[in-house]
Amino acid sequence: MKKFFLYAFVLCFLSSCIPAKKLTYFQGEPATKSELYRLNNEPYRLQVNDILYIDIKAENPEIVSLFKNSATTSTTQGGEGLYFTGYTIDRHGNIRIPYIGDLNVLGYTEKEVRQKIESELTKYVKKVESVFVTVKLAGINFVITGEVGSPGTINLSQNEVSIVDAIANAGDVNTFGDRENIVVVRKTIDGVKKYKVNLLEIEIFESDNFYIKPNDVIYVAPLKQKTWGFGATGFQTFTTLVTVFSFVTTTILLINTL
Questions:
Q1: Which is it for strands 191-197 and 51-58: parallel, antiparallel or unpaired?
Q2: 51-137, CATH topology level
Q3: Rounded Cα distance, 26 and 201, in Å
Q4: CA distances from 182 to 21, 36, 173, 177, 197 (A)
Q5: CATH architecture classification, 20-40+140-226
Q6: Low-confidence ranges of the chain (pLDDT < 70)
């Protein structure tokens, strides 16, 4: 009976601790340096609910003032401010520009939108070459939830956001977070897609999903050790098991004395 409890104790202790291998990022060695730093040069194509910052300048400001949203004159606004002052792509894929009206930009790149606006301005401005149009995505907006320090909606004012950036800005993965199976849910023109990302391997830097897209949802699932209720470290697990076995032993002794 004593051996049974000893074996059970050791088995639970070993199986409930979280090994260091489950907590260490970017394990392994990259194949070559060129592959490690390979970037995906495919430009992002705009989706519904993306927000654009659009600015139109000219030598004579009065020429283009009619086409500008007066609230967008400040370039220091963050993603939250641009929700009210930027150009949000509606469910039909359109943005609405003063005097130009609805302009469909769904599936377009930033450069293509800029060219499209410049083309529309030729209808109203004689010397369109004197007009300077700026089109930028108003930051990368994403949702992160699960086993992270600060779950929620985050907007980063960057042209590109990697999965590492996203995790770091959410307070990193908790001890009980499964770094090996992070789920990224992405809504695209072709429908909803689901990807899995493994932060434990160095190959993540070469993955097509290393960079997230605007409006991605990132979920960090818990490790099985959390559902078991044991500690994250060996000492915590030891303390928990001692408490459990003490309770079991006391219960058995009480039953035998009856």
A1: unpaired
A2: wza like fold (3.30.1950)
A3: 4
A4: 16, 20, 10, 9, 5
A5: Roll (3.10)
A6: 1-26, 28-41, 70-81, 225-254, 256-258
> What is the DSSP pairing of strand 87-88 with strand 94-97?
unpaired
Which class for 175: exposed (0-12), middle (13-18), buried (19 or more C-beta within 10 A)?
A: middle
pLDDT of residue 35: 47
Q: DSSP code of 78?
A: -
Q: Are strands 87-88 and 177-188 parallel, antiparallel or unpaired?
A: unpaired
Strand extents, DSSP E, the chain: 51-58, 87-88, 94-97, 101-104, 131-137, 140-146, 152-156, 177-188, 191-197, 217-222
Distance CA 108, CA 106 (A): 6
Q: Considering only CA atoms, which of 186, 188, 212 is closest in space to residue 199?
A: 212
**Domain coordinates in residue numbering, the chain:** 2-17+230-257, 20-40+140-226, 51-137
